[in-house]
Amino acid sequence: MFVRTQGLPQDSHDSMTVQVHTPVGAAVVCWGGDPQEADGQHLVEWTVDEDIHWGRNTRPASFAEAELRQEGDWVIMRGLLRLTEDGAACLQVSHWPVLFDLASPVPSGVDESWVEIRVASACVTLHPYQT
Questions:
Q1: Can you name the residues that pair with 4 across neighbouring β-strands?
Q2: Residue 13: predicted pLDDT
Q3: Is 37 left (phi over 0), alpha (psi -120 to 50) or beta?
Q4: What gap in Å lies between CA 31 and CA 9, rounded to an integer?
Q5: Residue 38 has pLDDT above 80, yes or no
Q6: In angstroms, rounded to a whole number, what is the distance separating the alpha carbons of residues 38 and 128?
Q7: Pairwise CA distance, residues 125 & 121, whole Å
Q8: Rounded (5°) CA angle 41-45-50
Q9: Strand, coil or helix: what is 63?
Q10: Distance between CA atoms of 28 and 17, rounded to whole angstroms?
Q11: What pairs with residue 63 in β-bridges?
Q12: How wide is the angle at C-alpha 100 spanned by C-alphas 98 and 56, nearest 5°?
């Protein structure tokens, strides 16, 4: 997915962070590419280093509409959840998929439903595709 990113000031001990702007919202996330290329338009892959914990960080969505937003130190992703045959999950947020592992069982009937997943901003990383 093409996104617009803007590099943010960083502490020398922290990972590089960017403000990412998508068609469905914006958030602050980690940047997994060259820091010199953090500003601009990029084709990216999203990775999240946090599993789905139903009832803790994942719940049914109030709206059947994709969204990305920031709430303090948290990134909230709303999308269509699809369970995979190998016991993982894919959250379809607009036109891009985000893969997750399941840390706990999800209720029956959740497959192919709209959910919100709340994860720490530091657990979300954008990786630019190299062309």
A1: 21, 41
A2: 65
A3: alpha
A4: 12
A5: yes
A6: 9
A7: 8
A8: 130
A9: coil
A10: 7
A11: none
A12: 115
Look up residue 2 and give its two tokens: 């093409």
Detail the DSSP E strand segments found in the chain: 2-7, 17-22, 25-31, 40-48, 58-60, 67-71, 74-83, 88-93, 96-101, 113-120, 124-128
Closest CA relative to residue 115, chosen from 52, 71, 70, 39: 52
What does the alpha-carbon distance between residue 15 and residue 39 come to, in Å, rounded to a whole number?
15
- Give yes or no for a contact between 24 and 95, defined as CB atoms under 8 angstroms apart: no
pLDDT tens-digit readout, 77-102: 999 999 999 989 999 999 999 999 99
Alpha helices in 1-131 (DSSP H): none
Amino acid at the residue 40: G
pLDDT attached to residue 15: 82
Q: For the segment 4-30, what is each residue's pLDDT rounded down to a tens digit?
A: 999 998 776 678 999 999 999 999 999
